[in-house]
């Protein structure tokens, strides 16, 4: 399949790729739309991925080596430290016990039937979405999607997909990790709260308020970073998304050796200053002008926006 796609101009990586996060797996395929034959072949590949993978034993064994190689290549100092502090951040939740890539033991030794069972359990229409963006006729493509994908049916007794919560805790949890190969020091203070999905205009308004808040605060931190003797190499604070139904408010710094306390104190001090005194009217107006200018530029260059960028916006809004 890769050989065929490369023969028609599709590059492995930029045009053909996939990723797995804690909550989803996304397959990405870029195909030409100036040839109906090539476009149809692309749709056929998506259909095969959705329900017709054969899982031959020898192919599974080949992929074991690929995934194990990815696991080894990802073991940087940052990855090793992350594997230590994530169980603390995701305290007593399912997310604390498994990273998406899994363990070397499972990758090497899981029986063939386990892969096939996983595919049968989770690759099904009620958990799946197909996004097509490009220079297309929407009505024609919609008809093609219905023709190809309506033949896929859910299992008679589907396995329940559990939603895993994040237990509360009274005490402040702390994780201190170190690695000889780490090139800089970071510190993070995180306040966990429930995710608020954007479902209506009111939710969208609140998300814009958070975006404006984040930008105003980080404009202040950026000014501090540009000082002659900056307190940190990089500083950030604001609202953001974690995983599952978990959101957070975070204060984060990256510092040179011996500077982390100074850097973290600076970011936390700016947070307290905002909490006590808020922002100035000038800061608010400047931030609104910046955001409006960016939106106007985006609108003017709408016809230059890459299809992949647009399609990922749909992916981000698909309910997990």
Question: Can you describe what's shown?
Answer:
The protein is mainly alpha-helical and 320 residues long. It has two domains: 2-156, 2-Layer Sandwich (Cytochrome Bc1 Complex, Chain A, domain 1), CATH 3.30.830; 185-304, Metalloenzyme, LuxS/M16 peptidase-like (Cytochrome Bc1 Complex, Chain A, domain 1, 2-Layer Sandwich), CATH 3.30.830. The chain has eleven helices and five strands, in the order H-E-E-H-H-H-H-H-H-E-H-E-E-H-H-H. The chain has helices at 2-7, 36-51, 57-73, 77-89, 104-109, 112-122, 138-149, 201-225, 260-277, 281-300, 307-317, and strands spanning 16-20, 25-29, 185-194, 234-241, 246-255. The strands form two sheets. A three-stranded antiparallel sheet has the order 3-5-4. The longest helix is centred in the middle third of the chain and has 25 residues, at 201-225. The protein is globular.
